[in-house]
Write a structure and sequence with these properties.
The protein has 235 residues and is an alpha+beta fold. The protein has six helices and ten strands.
Length: 235
Amino acid sequence: MESVKQGSCCLGICAKDFAVVAALKRATNELSSHQKKIFEIDSHIACAISGLTADAHALISYMRTECLEHKFQYDSAVKTSRLVTEVADKHQVKTQQSWTRPYGVGLLVIGSDADGAHLYQTCPSGNYYEYKAVAIGSRSQSAKSYLEKHLAEFREGSLDDIVMHALKALQGPANDKNLDGLNTSVAIVGKDKSFTRLTGEDLQPYLSRLTVANEDDMEEDGNEDDDDDDDENDE
């Protein structure tokens, strides 16, 4: 769990017909590329990671194989809940064997099936939970506070609104760094919408809207401070 807490922040939001994950990508230095944090598992399932990337790659490879085998045997896509249960069991087995160590990574898995959209979190212990919205990783508490504050808006919100909420929640864990197409990644799955990753130029329209929204919020805060000063002078 400490490995998960020290990983870069990622978060997920689940609406009625679609689910979104967003993640901060780190670069070890200015000369290196940013690490990939969101992965496609199947056309209807995506995964964001926080923790040890090597462990995540092993689990992602396992999940992809399970999806392919299920499709081959049953000629249908695997349900998100079934896949999460299987990968959680794989997590848990590692805690029982004395010659191995637990996986040091937490996963946020989003998926869409006949039951609707889903968002799950898995833990190194083997526990897993279904959420309406959740954030994990370094400095994730500020993102959780934002998600809790706006939870009522998620269920019936439009796709664009949910993506904007995800980016706004991600601003806190970014630690005053500006979100851009290099250090931010978003993925979407949903009803009649296969896996879609937004990064780079694809994400820029949303980041531009976020900049405008931040400027408007700063202006409103400035106006409120001016009103408070006027009230004190009147007294």
